[in-house]
């Protein structure tokens, strides 16, 4: 059988590197050799965060890097410059990398799997006559928006710069949750330069991706059935999960696994787990209010407080908070989230509703308490609360914050809501079946692998 050497390219953000690394691990279990390409900036973080026993070449997965076109010390949160530099410089860096690999070994790259947020890589692969797959890291519902930008401009929903002609809720299909045009990614930035640069970037990728040979998504067919007619040839292969053997996880921060032994000591279904992904930032008032709410619930909790979670680091916690909750809490910088969600002591998941967190929570059957911040997180929140009905939504008060009273009420309601727990378990089963023998995602992944091998 022909040996497949896949080059896998995520968009340079944590919520993209993790799912593509999970895909890499699955493909390597099917005999693929993987060259995993991060930007130099992220590669250094991934390598620095590896567990001690791992190195950058594990399990037939080889971590490599290319520049993102920015100076090493440049601000990667200057998004307009980042998008422009990815588009203008990364295609040639990728081409050089592929040529170098192909010229230096018998192990030529036989397939490229590109994050659809790096759709330009399809152009590079096609130029080099390499079969290429697109991979979408978020909901199929969101992909529908990106595929239909031209139609939305033609029908006057958006102007030619991607700005909504008026703020409105749109239904791209009758069964899909309504989406607020102000929550489209490029409209969430609050800065017109970033908005224009991001819209240019997304539109350009959406055009390039049309030439791919396959399309994969980290989702489950049964969770978003109505979106597939609008996403032709899209193969759901999720939920992508790490296995016990997975050592390369793609984390930018080292996991603090000590929280798992702490969880072992907590009663079943008692712990509130709070994690807000890799980019969410809290203002100090909201952070205080949440801490007070957590304290007043009286429940044990595990809280991921990344170094960059709060906009002001000093005195972030209320006075004496950590001492008062010390005997029933753990606060970590980065948790082994999938293992945490699978732990029997977890009662609920307070989340910003990033798509990876959504898929992981569904896969583990954990009820959600939703705290969407921006972009697709509102769509994911609608799926969780209104469509699948596996969680509750936290609402802001007139002062624009989620109050401690709102937090306590929703936690208490969720912990005793038998209907939501039962549905969460039903969805866990749907999700487990999809990746088991004969399940939709398992079949799609096998078909993809066979198709790649036969190209
Ligand atoms: C971003 C966007 O916010 C999200 O809306 C989009 O769908 C993907 O890109 P992010 O904010 O990082 O992602 O959230 P999410 O998609 O949930 O991904 C976070 C990942 O980090 C998950 O796989 C989660 O398991 C992992 N994680 C998070 C940890 O492993 N440990 C932690 O402590 C926190």
UniProtKB/TrEMBL annotation:
Listed PANTHER family: EF-HAND DOMAIN-CONTAINING PROTEIN, GLUCOSYL/GLUCURONOSYL TRANSFERASES
Xref: Pfam families: Glyco_transf_N, UDPGT
Name of the molecule in the record: Glycosyltransferase N-terminal domain-containing protein
Key word Transferase present: yes
Keywords recorded for this protein, A-Z: Transferase
Domain of life: Eukaryota
Gene3D superfamilies assigned: Glycogen Phosphorylase B (3.40.50.2000)
GO terms, molecular function: quercetin 3-O-glucosyltransferase activity; quercetin 7-O-glucosyltransferase activity
Glycosyltransferase N-terminal domain residues: 4-129
InterPro entries noted in UniProt: Glyco_transf_N, UDP_glucos_trans
Family: Belongs to the UDP-glycosyltransferase family.
